[in-house]
Amino acid sequence: MRRGAAFLPRPGYASVSRWLLAAALAGLLVADLQVTTLHPWSDLSRLLGGLTRPDLLAVDGRSVVYTVAFAVLGVGLGAGTGLLLAMPFARSRAVRLACAAVRAVHELFWALLLMQVFGLSATTGVLAIALPYAGICAKVYAELIEEADLAAVRVLPAGTGTVSAFLYARLPEVAGRMRDYTLYRLECGLRSSLVLGFIGLPTMGFAFESAFRQGRYAEAGALLLIFYALIGTRRLWVRARTLLVLLVGAALALPPTVGSAAIGPSLARFLGHDIVPAPLRGAPLAEPETWARLWSWLRPILTEQILPGTAQTLVLAQIALAATALGALVLFPLTARRFAGPLGRPLGRALLVVVRSTPEYMLAYVGLQLLGPSMLPAILALALHNAGIVAYLMGRHADAIPYRADAPRGLDLYAYETVPRLYGQFLAYLLYRWELILRESAIFGILGVTTLGFYVDAAISELRLDVATLLIAATALVTVAVDAVSRALRRSLRIDALPTRLSGPQPITGAEAP
To answer: Could you list the residue ranges that cross the membrane (predicted)?
Structure first.
């Protein structure tokens, strides 16, 4: 079998692109894309009016402070833990599996689970961000360490410990790139912190949802503009000399816990009872009847929730992935010097920064209010956000291409000179975003789209935490499987070494040519 497999042709750029597009077209046949609201354009015009006439005085400043505090502490804790895990990451399979498990679960799902132990508290918000970010940062930091120059390591004296070798030989080589990535991760943390408001934590998302539901569009617009200002100015207020002040200030500014919770007993009940499958609670594990009851409990969850929820999640993710690809190919010339020119390029970049800075969950929430409950708002939200990210990065790569003096212009330059030379990098970005799109697709169920998150939200609202935990585990397994397929495709296409991180220098290399 292996010998025969060695002679199978490797998939090329064209074949992988066709497979992804065919999967999206197949998904369109079963996707619910209806618009059910009567006047979507009038609602959209009122929202845009709020953006053009924002009521800044109506914004509760505490929601802004809490958003920043959750992000700073969550990212700080996640990045610090990730740095510790990055050292044994390459050598320990257990560490890699643990990191894959925690990062495969979305921050909203972590928050829904943590709320059962810590309530609507700062601990819930901070840990919901820190847990998946620890897994993400461990993986990225480990990759940065592996990519670093080993010259300093080779001259260390014999017997140097692992920690000492890392601190004195490897860390100085990668500190700058780690700093850049962590700064980008803080941008993601601000988006995550905002989204946590949609499930009750007192961040800007909570204030935005309240304002939007009550028709206070000027206040909603002001919240959005303030959030964009936070994202756009983060390099000004996050510096080495302000880091300690930010961490201490964030810890002091955390909101009080809503209600009282005895954490010890709550945690013991959560781990020892709530998330244990109901047929196994206090049952004798050695008796066959116990496992028969477990299968009777598990079978309807598998057939009526996990399988249909997974199918809907994959359909949504595949359509959004194809829409992201098309959007990125259309949008990246807006940020490229050769296409947009010296005047259009800054405007194009500003537009894409705004699009990429808006959380997909918020875009989907607004879309559902404007268009009604279907997959269409979720697809548009995912496509806009991710196309903005990929197009922004592709524009940077396009500016680094050494064009010939006699290169064509306009559409010929785009179709025959630029896209073919960037297509490998384009696929690398797209396949990397695949896993992230799937994670977001799952949580849109909380908004009413029938993905896996829909069943998770229903189970938690009914206090069936054992079912919710099983569904979240299924979501994580699907995410890990898609990530594995994505990595296998990148290796097969020989684009696995191309840069996919949003921050840091990303030069054009010869490997990007098809």
So the answer is: 64-87, 108-131, 151-169, 190-208, 214-231, 243-263, 315-335, 374-394, 436-455, 467-485
Around 124, how many Cα atoms within 13 Å sit in the side-chain half-sphere?
A: 28
163: left (phi over 0), alpha (psi -120 to 50) or beta: alpha
Question: Which parts of the chain have pLDDT scores under 50?
Answer: 1-8, 504-514
> For the residues of 414-460, what is the DSSP string, one character each?
IIIIIHHHHHHHHHHHHHHHHHHHHHHHHHGGGGT-SSHHHHHHHHH
- Using alpha carbons, list the distances in angstroms from residue 6 to 2, 13, 493: 6, 19, 15
Token look-up 């309530």 returns 119
Tokens of 83: 């740095």
**Amino acid letter, residue 383:** A
Q: Distance between CA 65 and CA 192 in Å, rounded?
A: 14
- The reply to whether CATH 1.10.3720.10 applies to domain 11-39+306-507 is yes
The residue whose two tokens read 């972590």 is 110
What pLDDT digit, counting tens, does each position of 224-237 carry?
999 999 998 888 89
The CA-based dihedral angle spanning residues 437, 439, 441, 446, taken in that order and rounded to the nearest 10 degrees? -150
What's the predicted TM-score (pTM) here? Answer: 0.88
Is there a contact between 209 and 129 (Cβ–Cβ < 8 Å)? Answer: no
Q: State both tokens at 421.
A: 């030379």
Say how far apart CA 514 and CA 115 lie, in whole Å.
Answer: 48
Is 54-259 a domain of CATH 3.20.20.60?
no
Helices 217-232 and 337-357, axial angle in degrees (round to 10)? 120
Residues 442 and 455: their CA atoms lie apart, in Å, by 10
Every domain range in the chain assigned CATH 1.10.3720.10: 11-39+306-507, 54-259
Distance between CA 481 and CA 147 in Å, rounded?
25
